[in-house]
Design brief:
globular
């Protein structure tokens, strides 16, 4: 969760994008889980909607599976952003289906058009959770994967405190409450087959540059004491374009914490939760 991205998302579409370590790790973890789901349920077609969440460059979370042959469709409600996303995919040598919709209450596709539909940290941009999930149900044949921020995590709570009324003003927090999602999906005859924490590296989800974060709490002197040099710029796009083949391995070095931490630790430390639904 990173409230500032609501206003500065364009900055990530620069010639030298820098998503930072947190988002870079997050991307690899999502890639691995999405591949696992697609393999398990034998999916060939994918819909990601909405694509705008709270992670660096918008609209690239499905690139990894598209590179392996999955037919992907992406929907956004901002024309400028959608064109910028299209450009990123083109630079990665990939073609996909991009659609603009002012809202997500009606998905202009036939019934059972996609094997899998999913979104990441994006449901709080949907006007009506009930109507959106009903539409997602209609166009999805096999499986729906939904990821939401962990509202009990240290990062979420701290950013909610920092953002004040901005979160309530800009976002629909009720849409990311798991019990609300599960209830609606159950009413739509979907079975919850898996739920868990995801994206739990050994650092909090501060959602912004650590210098800026520490400055809010008047702790930026800690970085001065360490005499930090310029941090390495990190972005998964070099990995997607085969310029940085070791990127995934470097990120997975931090997976040890997510692998061994018990759920009572992840309750406070995990950055996100996920739910997987299949048709009953």
């Amino acid at each position: 969760m990173a409230i500032p991205i609501l206003k500065n998302w364009q900055n990530y579409f620069s010639e030298e994008p820098n998503e930072g370590l947190g988002s870079s790790y997050e991307r690899i973890i999502l890639n691995n889980k999405l591949r696992e789901i697609i393999k398990k349920y034998k999916c060939e077609t994918l819909l990601e909607v909405p694509i705008f969440g709270f992670t660096g460059i918008t609209g690239i979370n499905s690139i990894a599976v598209a590179k392996s042959g999955i037919s992907a469709t992406l929907i956004d409600n901002d024309k400028q952003r959608l064109e910028m996303v299209r450009s990123v995919w083109k630079n990665c040598g990939l073609k996909t289906n991009f659609y603009f919709q002012e809202n997500f209450q009606k998905l202009n596709f036939e019934d059972n058009c996609f094997d899998i539909s999913w979104n990441f940290s994006a449901l709080w941009f949907v006007n009506s959770l009930e109507i959106f999930l009903k539409e997602l149900t209609r166009v999805t044949k096999k499986v729906i994967w939904i990821c939401v921020p962990n509202r009990f995590g240290f990062g979420y709570i701290s950013q909610k405190y920092i953002s004040g009324n901005e979160l309530k003003k800009e976002l629909k927090e009720d849409n990311i409450v798991p019990k609300n999602i599960i209830k609606e999906m159950k009413n739509l005859n979907w079975k919850l087959v898996e739920r868990n924490y995801i994206d739990c590296p050994p650092w909090p989800d501060i959602g912004m540059n650590k210098r800026e974060f520490l400055k809010i709490f008047h702790l930026d002197f800690l970085l001065k004491l360490k005499r930090e040099k310029n941090e390495e710029k990190l972005c998964i796009l070099d990995y997607y374009t085969n310029k940085d083949s070791d990127f995934s391995n470097r990120m997975m070095k931090y997976y040890w914490f997510e692998k061994i931490a018990p759920n009572f630790i992840k309750f406070f430390c995990a950055h996100h939760k996920y739910m997987i639904f299949t048709k009953t």
